[in-house]
Amino acid sequence: MDPQLRTLLDRNHGVLCRRDAAEVVPAWAIDVARREGRVRRILPGVYADTTLPGTDNATGTVDAADTGDPGRFPAGLGGLDPARARRAALGYADGRGAFSHLTALHLWGLWQPAAGEPVHLTVPATVRLSSHSGLVVHHVRGFSLDGPDTLTRHGVPVTWLERALVDSWPLLPAGERRGPVIQAVAGRHSTPQRVGAALAGAPKLPGRAQLRELLGKLAAGCHSPLEIWGHDRVFTGAGMPPLRRQARVSDGRRTCYLDVYAEAQRVAFELDGASVHGAPGQREVDLRRDAWLATLGIQVVRFSHRRLVHDTAEVRREILAVLAARR
Question: What predicted TM-score, i.e. pTM, was given to this entire model?
Fold first, then answer.
């Protein structure tokens, strides 16, 4: 392989654009490397180093769209690891698109893509880029790379978090849709109001009503699937007084947020999820927190995930009894 071509591939982590290579090597250098099986064409004008791990060197059919690139090649991004697939997609976009949907959600740290999951790019409606195997290009009217639609994250252009959450909603498996939205709000990376504003710009989004309902519960203070369960089945309904979710309590030196708080009776109901409160050392943390709240005159009542889900009626009775005793 041409030494300069080898240097370009190494510098770009095994991905190369023909337009960049043309600035430093003869046009035939890529064709020779391809015939020798050293690189393969993965997108129009974009090539991958076949000698690196995580690159499938299978071949496909001729595509006349890549002028000057004879031979056979595999279609799309199949066989590339996710990081190189994203790098290849950016090379193909050539500054005309931003990562969006599930790809943006991954870059925001809220989604782990499964093997073979396609890369998503959003581009202005007038940009002539096509989807390929492993790459989904979304053409959106009014979308601008220079406006409020995108920002740079990890050195690459991505859509804003709220837009990524809304765009990804119908693409996620039904049982996993709520997780990224809950994580974003609970981690204070966004708010239900900001996600709601993004949702307002997608009136035809599949599953829109379900997302709007979730945002309502998050706005009420629910910050976990268990709290949403409690909101729906335990802490609302006949006989239940008004209760605050994620109520802030502070003594000037220390601050905490209570899952459910009956302010008039000064009772905090804490919902202990198995994944967190079952962790080693968490019991000691909970006991110290409860003791501190007791110094403020707040009684803490804890319910386990198992009791909340499987003994709902009895939990409701206990809540009402505790509140009656504290009046």
Answer: 0.75
- Choose one of 53, 75, 97: the last residue of a domain: 75
163 and 238, same domain (yes or no): no
Q: Are residues 91 and 207 in the same domain?
A: yes
One domain for residues 170 and 292:
no
Q: 223: how many CB neighbours lie within 10 A of its CB?
A: 20
Tokens at 199, concatenated: 């949702």
CATH number of the domain within which 314 lies: 3.40.960.10
Regarding whether 171 and 152 lie in a shared domain, the answer is yes
Nearest to 301 by CA among 248, 257, 259, 250: 259
The rounded distance, in Å, linking the Cα atoms of 175 and 267 is 33
Q: What are the φ and ψ backbone dihedral angles of 174, each rounded to 5 degrees?
A: -50, -40
Residues 133-175: pLDDT tens digits? 999 999 999 998 887 889 999 899 999 999 999 999 999 998 8
Summarize pLDDT for 16-45 with one digit per residue, the tens: 899 988 888 888 888 898 888 888 899 999
Domain termination residue (choose one: 201, 219, 237): 219
Listed residue (234, 250, 255) closest to 311, CA to CA = 234
Beta-sheet strand order (sheet of 255-262): 244-250, 255-262, 267-272, 299-304
168: which residues sit within 8 A by CB, 6+ positions away?
101, 102, 104, 105, 111, 180
Rounded (5°) CA angle 220-225-228: 35
Same domain membership, residue 133 and residue 28: no
Q: Which domain holds residue 122?
A: 84-219
